[in-house]
Automatic annotation (TrEMBL):
The keyword Iron does not apply. It comes from the Bacteria. This is Prephenate dehydratase. It catalyses: prephenate + H(+) = 3-phenylpyruvate + CO2 + H2O. It comes from Geodermatophilus arenarius.
Length: 311
């Protein structure tokens, strides 16, 4: 029997990122081959090029909000879809080469989201010390190990991986932060509906009064709750915005499918970004009786009879 090749995962690397930890929490030990990518863009590009089957990238954080590289990377270029979401609690250490003292630190390097989530604590402990961006927390730890900077904000496991020691533990401004990661693939068969799914999309609204209200109404009238909505600049069109949103439900369900079809009519552009099982530990709101699939089916049959003259 021919064996199915192992799934090739590309995650935001290098080794020791929160993205790698999220991947380990999502797939069984030994499952698939896992390759670090140098950036979110590189992970997504590997999937688009067919060099990887799945990218695991950070989408948003409970403290700092969305990760622009991922939001924009999913919106631009060949279509990709989210097949799964994974939530990971994040905690940070300030790590340095052995022998470094807090007073020796002249710059702190990390992923912008990690710097943002530790800004207050770093300002207290290292007043006036500048911060430098890195492509990931583990890339920052590696840079410190190589002597490129004095201290990194990273996961405890990254500090260990690159031979660093913590100068300070738990440097997060808000303990209990959680990061939402997504697994992204080229379009193909959708995950089966589970009854507790989310659907993600990006809509470019027309430049007219009430255009956003029109988008929201299509969800509201079908009893669909949104779990996230934010605007992003389209970037190629000055002051024109797209709205990136997640809603409850699966595109295979009538109310969600009809809402998307309605958006396709009222928006300039709609990009479907996938329907996948909800994993934030919450359950979808009950579907109003009039928005259940059976009611859509029955209404469609009724309309067909009218059109056939069977009034
Ligand atoms: O850089 C990492 O380790 C990542 O996986 C991205 C990230 C950065 C900061 C908080 C959560 C995730």
């Amino acid at each position: 029997m021919p064996q199915t090749p192992p799934t090739r995962f590309a995650y935001l690397g290098p080794e020791g990122t929160f993205a790698e930890a999220a991947l380990s929490s999502a797939v069984a030990p030994g499952e698939g081959v896992r390759r670090p990518a140098a950036s979110v863009a590189a992970a997504l590009a590997a999937v688009r090029a067919g060099d990887a089957d799945v990218a695991l990238v950070p989408l948003e954080n409970s403290v700092e909000g969305s990760v622009p590289a991922t939001m924009d990377g999913l919106t631009d270029g060949d279509p990709l879809v989210i097949t799964r979401e994974v939530f990971l609690p994040v905690s940070f250490v300030l790590a340095a080469r052995p022998g470094t003292r807090l007073g020796d630190v002249r710059a702190v390097v990390s992923h912008p989201h990690a710097l943002a989530q530790t800004a207050r604590t770093l300002a207290e402990r290292l007043p006036g010390v500048p911060t430098l961006p890195a492509s990931s927390t583990a890339a920052a730890a590696r840079a410190v190990a190589e002597g490129g900077s004095d201290a990194a904000v990273c996961a405890p496991i990254a500090a260990e991986r690159y031979g660093l020691v913590p100068l300070a533990d738990d440097v997060a401004d808000f303990p209990g932060a959680v990061t939402r990661f997504v697994l992204v693939s080229r379009p193909g068969a959708l995950p089966e509906p589970t009854g507790d799914d989310k659907t993600s999309l990006v809509a470019v609204v027309a430049d007219r009064t009430g255009a956003l209200l029109d988008v929201l109404r299509e969800f509201a009238v079908r009893g669909i709750s949104l779990t996230r909505i934010e605007s992003r600049p389209t970037r190629d069109r000055l002051w024109v915005y797209s709205f990136s949103l997640d809603c409850e439900g699966h595109v295979a369900e009538a109310r969600v499918g009809e809402a998307l079809a309605a958006l396709h009519r009222v928006c300039e552009d709609v990009r479907f970004l996938g329907s996948y099982p909800r994993a934030d530990g919450r359950t979808n709101r009950p579907v109003p009786a009039e928005a259940a699939d059976a009611r859509f089916t029955e209404a469609g049959e009724w309309l067909a009879r009218l059109r056939a003259g069977e009034v």
